Amino acid sequence: LTHAIDPSRLVVSNDGWEHTESDLLTIHDYENRPVDTLCPVSQP
Question: Which domain of life is it from (predicted)?
Answer without folding.
Answer: Bacteria
